[in-house]
């Protein structure tokens, strides 16, 4: 990461100047709605030193402190569907299935197999069989068609013969490689599939307010030039995929990493920051909050995102703080105050750096989050041999709440992955994104839209005759319940005094009365 760090480390100490004005004296512009951008006047012109723009930095919190509303998981679907299969066919349309069928037959013909003649219905059965194999796993593929009683799986065996299944898998293709000029595109073999899924993921639902950008790994140990080795990952060998996902885990954007030589021209921000800008080019000026880790984060990146109407928050490395570390309280001063001590500075462009002492020093850089409102976090104290509570800044709390979108998607894909051995990398990548499509499909039909949740109807709790209780969907509740809303069909605990369960139903009743 040395090349990335050098993009942010050169800075003058005079950019971060503490102010005598305390946080209590800092006024917030009245009339600003929650989650809306704050228009700040341009800072006065300053003299230049070493060709660096000088800013006035003040020991204060972010001007947008405390304005982020709680995430309720509300969706605005753009798909007219009711059944899971209908949602799936929007993300993975029949036109794509027809295209895959055509190129599979074409590739078989080019290889001398003239009588493959696969149909679109057979291709659907082929895809369905592969999906069933992800959650009903046998040691060997042919065991699904076994003649032994109790081992044969009729769901698969009756849908397609084993030889026909293996023939389609052998010639499965997604583009005409004989007439396509790959150029510098290392993904040309599967590019039509990736482009279609990318467009449909975005069109199915409006993006959530809180988004996270992170990397995910497609496990693969075969021969491939873009293969990566990341030792700290559960599957260290594989293809790196940059992804943008909502707090629900739904993946909106993705970009397969094709190597440093394939990224094209690199801006002054660096390769990592360019990834953030590319993945966020469709949510500009829509009041979205984007979270990322220290591989991407830097003060210039957050400033550029703010100019594009996107509020960025990330964990920042010390050598990317552009001199803010010299104006924050030192590690010695924070240790004297005790675990949970906080120090905050904000510049004239409303980029806030929060230094927090937990087990070690943590730096959060943000254009919308700072220290307040603080809450408490539980930690184990080795000295006192007990669990203690420490102060936690708002930036850390919100970051922890919404940074895990990509990890959640990765977790759900890893539960039932399609990882049958195949030396052809594009086949492995196809089935990986098929798993991603299934997860996105599952999130769409089981998420209630805002119109339904807040619209008229019988929003009353009903006791369901089920054996196993479901997890309460109230973010503040950790219980399981057998109650659900009669209209939304969402599991929520009724009449709770310690969380928002009762408030959930009261909001629905008020919505009905207003209608």
What does this entry look like structurally?
With 515 residues, the protein is α+β, with helices and mostly antiparallel strands. It folds into 3 domains: 84-182 and 419-444, no CATH class; 205-410, no CATH class; 449-514, no CATH class. It is 32% helix and 16% strand. The chain contains 16 helices and 15 strands. It has helices spanning 2-9, 84-91, 94-110, 120-135, 154-157, 162-171, 191-204, 271-279, 299-307, 324-327, 331-337, 394-402, 405-415, 425-443, 450-454, 501-514; strands at residues 210-219, 227-229, 237-246, 251-256, 288-292, 310-315, 342-346, 352-357, 361-366, 375-381, 386-392, 461-463, 470-471, 480-481, 483-485. The strands form 4 sheets. Strands 1, 2, 3, 4, 5, 6, 7, 8 and 9 form a 9-stranded mixed β-sheet that branches. A hairpin with a 4-residue loop joins strand 10 and strand 11 (386-392). Helix 7 packs parallel to helix 14. It is globular. The N and C termini lie far apart (56 Å). Mean pLDDT is 81; it is low at 1-15, 17-54, 65-73 and 497-502.
Q: What is the overall silhouette?
A: globular
Count of separate structural domains: 3
Q: How much strand? A: 15-25%
Please mark out the parts with pLDDT under 50 across 5 or more consecutive residues, or reply none.
1-15, 17-54, 65-73, 497-502
Mean pLDDT: 81
């Amino acid at each position: 990461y040395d090349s990335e760090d050098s993009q942010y480390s050169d800075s003058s100490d005079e950019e971060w100047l503490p102010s005598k004005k305390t946080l209590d004296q800092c006024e917030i512009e009245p009339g600003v709605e929650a989650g809306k951008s704050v228009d700040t006047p341009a800072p006065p012109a300053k003299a230049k030193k070493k060709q660096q723009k000088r800013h006035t930095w003040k020991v204060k919190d972010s001007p947008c402190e405390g304005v982020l509303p709680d995430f309720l998981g509300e969706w605005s679907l753009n798909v007219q569907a009711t059944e899971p299969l209908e949602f799936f066919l929007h993300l993975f349309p029949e036109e794509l299935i027809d295209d895959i069928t055509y190129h599979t037959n074409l590739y078989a013909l080019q290889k001398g197999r003239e009588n493959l003649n696969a149909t679109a219905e057979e291709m659907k059965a082929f895809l369905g069989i592969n999906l069933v194999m992800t959650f009903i796993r046998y040691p060997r593929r042919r065991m699904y068609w076994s003649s032994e009683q109790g081992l044969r799986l009729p769901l698969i065996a009756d849908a397609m013969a084993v030889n026909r299944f293996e023939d389609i898998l052998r010639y499965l293709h997604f583009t005409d490689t004989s007439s396509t000029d790959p150029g510098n595109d290392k993904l040309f073999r599967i590019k039509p599939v990736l482009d279609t899924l990318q467009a449909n993921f975005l069109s199915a639902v409006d993006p959530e307010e809180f988004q996270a950008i992170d990397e995910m790994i497609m496990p693969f140990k075969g021969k491939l030039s873009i293969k990566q080795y990341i030792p700290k990952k559960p599957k260290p060998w594989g293809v790196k995929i940059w992804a943008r996902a909502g707090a629900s885990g739904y993946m909106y954007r993705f970009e397969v990493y094709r190597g440093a030589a394939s990224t094209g021209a690199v801006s002054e921000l660096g390769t990592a920051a360019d990834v953030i800008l590319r993945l966020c080019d469709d949510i500009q000026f829509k009041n979205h909050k984007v979270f990322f880790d220290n591989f991407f984060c830097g003060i210039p990146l957050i400033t550029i995102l703010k100019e594009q109407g996107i509020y960025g928050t990330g964990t920042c490395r010390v050598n990317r703080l552009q001199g803010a570390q010299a104006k924050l309280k030192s590690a010695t001063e924070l240790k004297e105050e005790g675990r949970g001590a906080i120090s905050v500075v904000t510049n004239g462009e409303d980029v806030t750096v929060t230094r927090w002492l937990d087990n070690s020093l943590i730096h959060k850089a943000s254009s919308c989050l700072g220290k307040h409102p603080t809450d408490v976090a539980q930690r184990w104290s080795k000295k006192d041999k007990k669990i203690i509570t420490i102060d936690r800044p708002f930036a850390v709390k919100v970051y922890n709440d919404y940074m895990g979108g990509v990890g959640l998607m990765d977790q759900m894909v890893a539960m039932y992955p399609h990882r049958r051995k195949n030396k052809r990398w594009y086949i492995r990548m196809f089935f990986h994104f098929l798993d991603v499509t299934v997860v996105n499909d599952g999130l769409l039909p089981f998420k209630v839209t805002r119109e339904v949740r807040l619209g008229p109807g019988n929003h009353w709790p009903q006791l369901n005759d089920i054996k196993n209780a479901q997890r309460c969907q109230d973010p503040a509740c950790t219980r399981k319940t057998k109650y659900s809303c009669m209209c939304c069909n969402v599991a929520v605990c009724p009449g709770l005094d310690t969380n928002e369960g009762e408030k959930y139903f009261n909001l629905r009743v008020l919505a009905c009365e207003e209608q």
